Prior knowledge:
11% strand; 4 strands; 357 residues; 15 helices; alpha+beta; four-stranded mixed beta sheet
Amino acid sequence: MKKSVFDTLLLSIVSFFMPFSLLSNTAYKPLFSSDSPQFFEKIQKEFALLQNKGIKSSLNPYATSLSDATNAELAPTLNIFLTQMVEQLIKKTTLKMPAILIYVQDDQTSYNASMQTIRYTSVLTSTTQSGQSMRTEIVNDEYNLTIGKDVINLFLWNNHNKNCLAAVIAHEIGHAVNNHTTQSIENEFQADRTAVKLLQNPSSLAKGITMLTLAGHIYNTLAAIASPAFIPHVHFFVRTLSSTLVQEYPDLGQLGNSSSHSVFAQAVRTALDPIVNIPATDQKTINPTTIIMKAYENLRLACSNPQKLMGMDKKELSAQGKMLDELTDKMFSPIHHPAPKKRMSNIFKAIAEKKAA
């Protein structure tokens, strides 16, 4: 099969690495930076400082608020970058600036972002001209925007995807604009429609949601079925596979057309299971370049020809299917999250309406 430019790109990344048994001593380096060659390295150091020395939020023991002066001092690059991005997005709204929290734990929530509205009610007592006492109830809203560190890593690892981070944040701002206090499929649709209105380039929302969805499913699959030797390198695999595949298949083809997240997860598992579930006796002889290229080729099949993928001769799938189902339901609940196909349809409809207005 003829290699695409993205195949060559992918190979150029992984060819820097030592044999798989030595990966633990290898430092991953980004292919692109966000604003300077040192930008990605800077935020990695700041994430580590926040995780080890940051003051944790009282609302979430695994998150640190950049509104805290100590945390802002530990992560000045992140603080300035994210604050400016959020300020730009809320200009078209009546919202107050939200507190920005970074989720620093290594789990599936690090591939998520959320907006929490906290409503405070106070009573103001005043005296009228006639001398009567009057009580006025005042309602104030405060917002907490929590962004997983691996959401940030996913989009800033490659300079072309910086706008996708802004788009995902715009979606969360959409929840606050629409006063959402509960999760539902319709609320996700509404937040996407609001994000389209806020964004100068709304197509970045479709790309950002697509990439984040793929990253979440790849992470869940690796967390459930990958051999122990993969665990320290899961996030690198997620970033590489997700960003490269979406560059080649912006809508993920038939994979992106999945009728449910369960179907999406099954396709990703079928693509990755025979490659990353490696017997302990073979792990020292496996080259990471071979692993990631095979994984990428199988994911391409999931996009372009899933029937061929499902029909390939493979070893029996590993037994961790139940764990993967649980991770999928937790991250992409069918009650709260629209199916990939329906969500993209809603976003593209909103984009068309914006262009027609």
